[in-house]
Amino acid sequence: MKKAIWALFLALSLALGAAPRAAIPFSGKTLDGQPFDLKPLLGKTPIFLHFWASHCPPCLIEGKEIEPIHQRFKGRIAFIAVDVQDPPKMAAFRVREWGWTFPVVVDYYADVARAYGVRALPTSVFIDRAGRVVKVWTGMLIYNGRDGLTPLLKELLNAP
């Protein structure tokens, strides 16, 4: 009986997605050398946490499309990028090219990426107002003129 209940629970978890879990606070430096700390944002505002690198081809395709979406949600959702195992000069070049105006945290040794279970880039983590990870998306959300990010951000705004 216990095996049947466990199997049902596992099937429902896979079908419905994992239950929300607490976001992991982290601190570090941004590409422009400023200190960054996620903890003061947790529990106050929804957060779009985007893991990327300049050596990731899908990241390069998607990266230029993120800032216009950021501008639409500015003040309602905190956008934070985490640059994973990347030479800072290359990452800074891309950030300038794309015109990103949100913080880009350097994760040279992939400590933050590992803490969030990132296994591939790009990976996007959606954190609700309560500071819980409610969705993780591995892969591109914006490609071939399709914007899969905006609907997820709207869903994040409407999360309890």
Number of strands: 10
Portion of residues in helices?
Answer: 25-40%
Structural class call reads: alpha+beta
Mean pLDDT: 90
- CATH top level is Alpha Beta
CATH architecture: 3-Layer(aba) Sandwich
Low confidence ranges: 1-16
Strand line-up across the major sheet:
1-8-7-4-5-6
Query: The CATH topology is what?
Result: Glutaredoxin
* Number of helical stretches of at least 4 residues: 5
Q: Which descriptor suits the 3D outline?
A: globular
Report the order of strands and helices: HEEEEHEHEHEEEEH
The biggest sheet, with number of strands, parallel, antiparallel or mixed sense and barrel status, is: 6 strands, mixed
Could you explain the architecture of this structure?
It is built from 5 helices and 10 strands; from the N terminus they run H-E-E-E-E-H-E-H-E-H-E-E-E-E-H. The model is unreliable at 1-16 (pLDDT under 50). 33% of the residues are buried. Strand 4, helix 2 (57-73) and strand 5 form a beta-alpha-beta unit. The chain is of the alpha+beta class and 160 residues long. The chain has one domain (20-158): Glutaredoxin (3-Layer(aba) Sandwich), CATH 3.40.30. The protein is globular and about 40 Å long. The protein has a 6-stranded mixed β-sheet with strand order 1-8-7-4-5-6.
How would you concisely characterize the structure shown here?
The chain has 160 residues and is of the alpha+beta class. It has helices at residues 2-16, 57-73, 88-98, 111-115, 149-158, and strands spanning 21-22, 27-29, 35-37, 47-52, 78-84, 104-107, 123-127, 132-138, 142-143, 146-147.
